[in-house]
Amino acid sequence: MTDHTSKQFDSELEAIRTKVLQLGGLVEQQIWRAVEGLTGDDEARLNEVVQKEAQVNRLEVELDEACGAVLARRQPAASDLRMIVTVMKVAPNLERIGDEAEKIARMAKMIHEAGRMHTPRVELNHMATATTAMLRKVLDAFARLDAQSAAQVVRQDIPVDAEYQGVLRQLISFMIEDPRTISRSIELMFIAKALERIGDHTKNIAEFVVYLVKGRDVRHLDVDDVEREAAS
Amino acid sequence: MTDHTSKQFDSELEAIRTKVLQLGGLVEQQIWRAVEGLTGDDEARLNEVVQKEAQVNRLEVELDEACGAVLARRQPAASDLRMIVTVMKVAPNLERIGDEAEKIARMAKMIHEAGRMHTPRVELNHMATATTAMLRKVLDAFARLDAQSAAQVVRQDIPVDAEYQGVLRQLISFMIEDPRTISRSIELMFIAKALERIGDHTKNIAEFVVYLVKGRDVRHLDVDDVEREAAS
Question: How far is CA B120 from CA B134, B189, B192, in A?
Answer without folding.
Answer: 21, 10, 10
